[in-house]
Amino acid sequence: MNNISIVGRLTKDPEVRTTNSGKTTCSFTLAVNRRGKRQEGSPTADFFRVTCWEQSARYAGDYLRKGKLASATGRMEERKWTAQDGQEVRIWELVADSVNGLERRDDDGDPANTGTGNRSTSSGTTATATEEYDPFADE
Asked: Which domain holds residue 22?
């Protein structure tokens, strides 16, 4: 079974593009902290390239920004191609079925800094959050 879920912080703003066939795609990288004790010189995070499509891509482009905490769930895929210099390039990326922001809106009210809004579910449907609902509000 090829299923992966990660939680991390965006290393830069998401890149949203439209394909020649009109589909929306978005790519970003999540830095995921490692558990356990750090050994001298060892990295403290792993970096996962995430690609999402259509509703998830629009959500990521509208609501996620560099440094924000987010989750992504999907499958790992390998892509191979030959670069212009003739070198073979191989990368692994998480092709996300679901992407969510995990932080509340900043005090300045910028919707790009929110974890609420249109959320793409794993079934591909969109659930719209209402402004009255704040999952992070103090109870």
From this structure: 4-34+44-128
Q: Which residues, in sequence order, are CB contacts of 105 under 8 Å at separation 6+? A: 111, 113, 114, 115, 116
Domain count, the chain: 1
User: Do the beta carbons of residue 104 and residue 69 sit within 8 Å?
Assistant: no
The residue among 76, 119, 77 whose CA lies nearest residue 98 is: 119
Please check whether residue 87 lies inside any domain of the structure. yes
Assigned domain for 27 exists? yes
Spell out the SS3 assignment of 86-135.
CCEEEEEEEEEEEEEECCCCCCCCCHHHCCCCEEECCCCCEEECCCCCCC
Per residue in 111-124, pLDDT (tens digit) is 554 444 444 444 44
Partners of 45 in beta bridges: 33
The Cα–Cα gap between 107 and 46 comes to 30
Half-sphere exposure of 134 (CA within 13 A, CB side): 11
This prediction has a pTM of: 0.71
